[in-house]
Design a protein that fits this description.
heterodimer; A: 106 residues; mainly beta; 6-stranded mixed β-sheet; 3-stranded antiparallel β-sheet; 46% strand; B: 118 residues; 7-stranded mixed β-sheet; 4-stranded antiparallel β-sheet; 11 strands; globular
Chain lengths: 106, 118
């Protein structure tokens, strides 16, 4: 079965850029989405179709996907961006999530 | 506004079944697949399957084949997820989510806690 791999945690200083990676076999041939989840809340879609932002998502969130790696980039990270982030794709019409990355803002 | 509202928390014994509902509003119910995703305490997101509210066709994760059934009631704008032969490790929060974009799930329900305990 298809798998997506993310770092379990990372930290970023306030105002700096955070880049969260997601790896999978030929992931660049598929579309990647990213979700933000804060404690006790439902996930929120922040990037879909590799690099598109839903309405209401700040411009500091961006995405890319090439080769075997998709990347979520948060520019000018704010304290409110501290959360768990999950990548997701579709493989043979089956949903697949990465294990999630806990982002800490210092 | 577009929203998905799920049924309330459930407590079940091992071996029993649970059926969770997800009522859609604010958009054309038959236009988008509904997916089910679960999350055990302190763990990541896990995809269970999807249902197409238009034709009713479904797709399930291999792990849950034979134990999960997803259905819809079009006139009630509601989808259902039933999980049978429950085990303790099925204890989790279960979410429904609309696949409103080509690749992503853009609207999520509030989650339904299912506790499996003897």
């Amino acid at each position: 079965s298809y798998e997506l791999t993310q770092p379990s945690s990372m930290s970023v200083s306030l105002g700096q850029t955070a880049s969260i990676t997601c790896s999978g076999d030929k992931l660049g041939d598929k579309f990647a989405s990213w979700y933000q989840q804060k404690p006790g809340q439902s996930p929120v879609l922040v990037i879909y179709q590799d690099n598109k932002r839903p309405s209401g998502i700040p411009e500091r969130f961006s995405g890319s996907n090439s080769g075997n790696t998709a990347t979520l980039t948060i520019s000018g990270t704010q304290s409110m961006d501290e959360a768990d982030y999950y990548c997701q794709t579709w493989a043979s019409n089956t949903g697949v999530f990465g294990g999630g990355t806990k982002l800490t803002v210092l | 506004q577009v929203q998905l509202v799920q049924s309330g928390a459930e407590v079940k014994k091992p071996g029993a079944s649970v059926k969770v509902s997800c009522k859609a509003s604010g958009y054309t119910f038959t236009s988008h697949d509904i997916n089910w995703v679960r999350q055990a305490i302190g763990q990541g997101l896990e995809w269970l399957g999807r249902v197409n509210p238009n034709g009713g066709d479904v797709g399930y994760a291999e792990k849950f084949q034979g134990r999960v059934t997803m259905t819809r009631h079009t006139s009630k704008s509601t989808v259902y997820m039933e999980l049978s032969r429950l085990r303790n490790d099925d204890t989790a929060v279960y979410f429904c989510a609309r696949r409103g974009t080509p690749s992503g799930m853009d609207v999520w329900g509030q989650g339904t806690t299912v506790i499996v305990s003897s």
